[in-house]
Q: What sequence folds into this?
């Protein structure tokens, strides 16, 4: 999701006369598009700020600065307007010519009535701006990601000369990063398209609703239109995004419409939610070659007691049933998942339930997230982080050992299979990383007949844990 957000920021700034560069050394401005899923994500930003030369300007956006936006903390007066006592992201900016409120607490104190055309940045946006800019005076701009379309106005307020030839928009989702690489790697043949925004689920541990607000679904024609623009720019793979991507009421229609488009080779989506899967969607995985044979489903735990504390809304038995449905398809599907380790009050019996389903699910990868208290969440307020470090380490090792063995067994079964792959990264002079249609990483000897972003069929003749190797180009 952050890659998609960053591509939209890049698109607006390019139309303002800015040019993206590859390294910090080349840059005049460094932009942090932040995450808050775990505290470690926020800590990385402050660590990285220490490495940025003070001669370079810094801008910060994203979740890290959107869950701490209570503006009354910076005002000396108690009678500040009601709209500045709530989170900025709850505002509904309805104009395309908003007022940019930003620089000092005096501006906030002088505001006396409700003005629905305000976009707050910097001090007016977040008291965190004050504390961070005291340490790093080169921090120039805080802005919320939803206001990306108003960057030209923000830049003018900051004193930049801006020539912007696009229409200003108050709808973040309508910014289409045409010709902008939205991929996590150097290749530009994958486009990440958001189909909705934010989340209403309020899982006990999750900060997303508090950082990005409640969900909004984007129209089908807008999503298809963006896909066509990317495909016209030689994109081959589209990945549909959002927090609960398959909750979109027209998700099946979106999938079917995109599969009709010329030029599309692969279609993926992430992250879905177990209870919003339909049999029709699973059947499409079985019958549609372009819909990749991979499902990432974030189960998080397989203990009923833990799932209930997490407010996940499904049982362990439903997880087993869902895996059975996938394994029952005529087309083999790779399954990956997320697990939160060390959730408060997780007992040995709870953890053993997770081990059991790991064996049953035969997952190709498990992304293990260490539980991290996040502010505003129910878990942060009600659940103590009560698991000793020694127990945490033992459980992590047990789960990792099981995953390691299953990955070996799954990858060994891939030998002699024919897989479609895409080159997506250089490794060294002689080898390249490719990714298979079922989302496995594969290392292949370089063939000068191929370049980055090419797709090819390969015959797998070697495996290691978490990778396939030494494939023969067919």
A:
């Amino acid at each position: 999701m952050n890659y998609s957000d960053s591509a939209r920021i890049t698109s607006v700034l390019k139309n303002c006369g800015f040019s993206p560069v590859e390294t910090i050394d080349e840059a005049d401005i460094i932009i942090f598009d932040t995450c808050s899923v775990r505290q470690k994500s926020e800590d990385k930003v402050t660590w990285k700020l220490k490495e940025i030369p003070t001669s370079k300007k810094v801008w910060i956006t994203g979740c890290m600065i959107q869950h701490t936006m209570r503006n009354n903390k910076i005002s000396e007066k108690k009678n500040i307007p009601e709209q500045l006592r709530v989170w900025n992201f709850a505002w509904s900016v309805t104009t395309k010519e908003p007022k940019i409120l930003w620089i000092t607490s005096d501006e906030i104190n002088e505001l006396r009535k409700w003005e629905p055309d305000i976009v707050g940045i910097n001090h007016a946006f977040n008291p965190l701006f004050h504390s961070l800019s005291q340490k790093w005076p080169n921090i120039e701009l805080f802005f919320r990601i939803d206001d990306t379309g108003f960057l030209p106005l923000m830049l003018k307020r900051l004193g930049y000369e801006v020539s912007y030839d696009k229409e200003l928009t108050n709808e973040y989702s309508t910014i289409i990063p045409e010709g902008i690489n939205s991929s996590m790697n150097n290749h530009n043949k994958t486009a990440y398209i958001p189909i909705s925004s934010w989340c209403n689920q309020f899982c006990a541990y999750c900060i997303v609703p508090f950082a990005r607000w409640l969900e909004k679904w984007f129209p089908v024609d807008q999503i298809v239109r963006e896909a066509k623009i990317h495909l016209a720019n030689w994109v081959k793979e589209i990945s549909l995004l959002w927090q609960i991507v398959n909750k979109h009421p027209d998700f099946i229609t979106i999938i079917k419409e995109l599969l009709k488009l010329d030029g599309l080779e692969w279609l993926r989506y992430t992250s879905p939610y177990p209870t919003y899967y339909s049999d029709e969607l699973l059947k499409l995985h079985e019958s549609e070659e372009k819909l990749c044979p991979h499902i990432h489903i974030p189960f998080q735990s397989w203990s009923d007691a833990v799932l209930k504390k997490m407010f996940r809304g499904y049982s362990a038995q439903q997880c087993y049933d869902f895996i059975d449905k996938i394994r029952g398809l005529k087309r083999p599907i790779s399954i990956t998942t997320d697990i939160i380790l060390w959730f408060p009050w997780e007992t040995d019996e709870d953890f053993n339930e997770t081990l059991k389903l790991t064996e049953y699910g035969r997952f190709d990868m498990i992304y293990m997230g260490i539980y991290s208290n996040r502010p505003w969440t129910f878990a942060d307020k009600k659940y103590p982080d009560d698991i000793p470090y020694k127990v945490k380490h033992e459980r992590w090792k047990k789960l990792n050992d099981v995953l390691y063995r299953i990955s070996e067994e799954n990858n060994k079964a891939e030998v002699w299979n024919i897989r479609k792959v895409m080159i997506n990264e250089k490794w060294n002079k002689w080898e390249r990383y490719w990714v298979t249609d079922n989302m496995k990483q594969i290392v292949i000897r370089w063939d000068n007949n191929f370049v980055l972003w090419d797709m090819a069929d390969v015959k797998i003749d070697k495996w290691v844990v978490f990778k396939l190797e030494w494939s023969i180009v067919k």
The CA atoms of residues 1 and 241 lie 7 Å apart.
